[in-house]
UniProtKB/TrEMBL annotation:
NCBIfam families: YggS family pyridoxal phosphate-dependent enzyme (TIGR00044). CDD domains: PLPDE_III_YBL036c_like. Keywords: Pyridoxal phosphate. This is Pyridoxal phosphate homeostasis protein. It comes from Streptomyces niveus (Streptomyces spheroides).
């Protein structure tokens, strides 16, 4: 085994142990939580190693990096998640490889994704990204729609050809009422998810929690955690 392979093996094992013990503490089954490894800034060779180690879900946040990486790993049958802020001019490219776009936060993006998915003859899963620190109607600094904008977006996605409404995503806010209160933030996301599921029962994905706060997300009921640093190491640059 190469050094990198043993490093990734060890890190994955640690993350797996954290997820399993968070599930046990919360009285949840381990299979209720899916690990998505965020491979941004790391090379396709790492994605390949992760795949050999049993990882099935990977995430990227910049189309420029993700498109060639996904192409280089097309033989691995991984599920690719797009988790970054998305400009409409990148949508055609993203739809070419992303199975799930987790960062849907405005109507214009819904129409663009739908048109691209239809054109590519693909069905793209979508999560609505919620900004728990955004005011009514506004979007957060790091993307995401304010909670009172979820319903309108959900209706748009549900009616959009080529798109499938899968659920909600959030990043724990650094500012506002939920700053330093990850657990409360994620519990709020779960409440919003149950409101969403009243109208859209199949939209049951809840993507929350990263390297630093995955335990809080699992405790709150997240179905997907997005872990980068704890698996791959500290990123060489901001990604
Ligand atoms: C980078 C990133 C992650 C992973 O963050 P880590 O702290 O490295 O685990 C999760 N979600 C999103 C949206 C990201 O951009």
């Amino acid at each position: 085994m190469t050094d990198r392979a043993s490093e990734l093996t060890e890190n994955l094992h640690k993350v797996e142990t954290r997820i399993a013990s968070a599930c046990a503490s919360a009285g949840r089954n381990r299979d209720e939580v899916t690990l998505i490894v965020v491979t941004k800034t790391y090379p396709a060779s790492d994605v390949r190693l992760l795949s050999e180690l049993g990882v099935r879900h990977v995430a990227e946040n910049r189309d420029q990096d993700a498109a060639p990486k996904a192409a280089a790993c097309a033989d691995l049958s991984l599920t690719w998640h797009f988790v970054g802020q998305l400009q409409t001019n990148k949508v055609r490219s993203v739809v070419g490889y992303a199975d799930v776009v987790q960062s849907v936060d405005r109507i214009k993006l819904v129409s663009a994704l739908s048109a691209a998915a239809v054109r590519a003859e693909r069905e793209v899963g979508t999560l609505i990204q919620v900004a728990l620190d955004a005011d009514s109607g506004a979007r957060g600094e790091r993307g995401g729609v304010a909670p009172d904008g979820i319903e309108e977006l959900a209706t748009a996605v549900a009616g959009a050809p080529g798109l499938r409404l899968d659920g909600l995503m959030t990043v724990a806010p650094l500012a506002g009422p939920y700053a330093n209160r990850e657990q409360a933030a994620f519990e709020r996301l779960l409440e919003l998810s149950s409101l969403l599921r009243a109208d859209h029962p199949a939209a049951n994905m809840v993507s929350a929690g990263m390297s630093a706060d995955l335990e809080a997300a699992v405790a709150a009921g997240a179905t997907h955690v997005r872990v980068g640093t704890a698996v791959l190491g500290v990123r060489p640059r901001l990604g």
